[in-house]
Write a structure and sequence with these properties.
It is a single chain. With 526 residues, the chain is mostly helical. 39% of the residues are buried. The chain contains 22 helices and nine strands. The strands form four sheets. Strands 5-6-7 form a three-stranded antiparallel beta sheet. It has a two-stranded antiparallel ribbon with strand order 1-2. It has a two-stranded antiparallel ribbon with strand order 3-4. The protein is globular.
Length: 526
Amino acid sequence: MKPRLQSRLTTALTLGLTALFASACSLHDSERTLDTSAAGQPIVEPRTTEDVQAAMERQDREASQRAAETDDLWERARLGFGFNDALDHERVERYIKHYSDHPRIIEHATRRAEPFAYFILSEIEARDMPAELLLLPIVESGFVAHATSRSRAAGIWQFMPATGDHFDLSRDDWYDGRRDVYKSTLAALDYLQALHRRFDDWYLALAAYNYGQGNIQRAINHNAARGEPTDYWSLDLPAEPTAYIPRLLALRHLFMDPDAHGVALTPIANEPALEMIEPGRQADFALIAELVELDPETLKALNPGYRRHATHPGGAQHLFVPREVVPVLETALEDRDDEPLIRFREYTVRGGDNLGQIAERAGTQVAVLRDMNDLSGDMIRAGQTLRLPASAPDHDDSLPVASDNGAITEDYEIQPGDSLWHISQHTGMTIRELRAANDLEADAILRPGDTLKVVQSDPDRGPDGQRVEYEVQPGDSLSGIARRHQVSIGDLRRWNSLNGDGIRAGETLTLYLASADLDSVATGET
């Protein structure tokens, strides 16, 4: 892997995990849904991993031609910009100023985009779509693959669970296809194309992507019934879809001429950065990274669809890796053809154990344990030694479920330095509730990497007030920001996925205020 890219990936990972919403990301409401045709059939077909592979192979064949055009991916994107309507609308000017005043939003987002931008732009071009869509994940998520909105939209394209299900962006305890950048990109572009076919206008299609096509159609019908124009700029929409296209067009201005706006774009080579491999079995990230002398966290950052220490035991097992390491990795996998790609630890079976219970506690599946231990069935006996995945958690870690009051039980990964008090502040649960939900003894030790069940508030009932961004100023503290804007520290942590109180000057925090001017808040004025 190129040292420059690896360094940027490490920095981008840090930026993404410390503040998932350190950008102008869009938070979709619960009404954002996928319509079907009049016949009740889906408007598009789900994509598969094979589709991703085919797209990457096509891009690889065209790479030399693309490289001959320019060595700068951002220049290539500019050549494909296709929007020309209302580029200087007054609503756009507001966000040009906002992004120009906060250049780190773009600096951080383009750094996170570096491994994935070539694939996204190439797919946009292959479909003859406007290249401005490469900038849409900045509006959506700041290119943070782990971003999750208050209404459970996830990934760089912010797919809602139901829409993700339609596009076969499957999710379970091991994998969330909405966070798989490559597969979700195909789904997002499919969806945008379908919306464009419906509305025959890119701005309306984008507004529908953000706000829901049914909502946009109702707004159009309302204007038509009153004899008013039905273009995007004339529709009476809530604050978020009203700002959505202006944000994208503001980014278009800044990317078209970054020097004029004082914005630094992370340089991206106009060549494929990653390749996809299929190990053919579950693979441990730490082991794969060791085989190619790659930092495990960097490998995980390239594969954000996976939620655990390894690929899926029975489903998605593909991996995206830097092109430079592919020959070494292929050779290493051939040498280990008959060996598992999961590190193991030994466990002595106790009286009353069964294979299902052991698999559940180890965070794996019975089939994996059978394979690792050459078992033909589920029969085990007390005193027998079994191999268990070494880096898997050693406790129950089940799927998110709805509780009786409608709240959502989710998995929280313990971070270094975490305590039950910190986690209670982050989630709103009491320490007693955390212990009860996870069967923790009073002297239980929290281990980084393990997960706890936590109950978040109803995700379909978002915070009241206007969503604004605030750039952290030198000398700011979380308590000071909370006091100045009359919100709680717990809300600030929850809105920004913060595990503690650590913030840095230049980061952007999301706040929900009863009434506030975005620009004055973002620049620290009160």
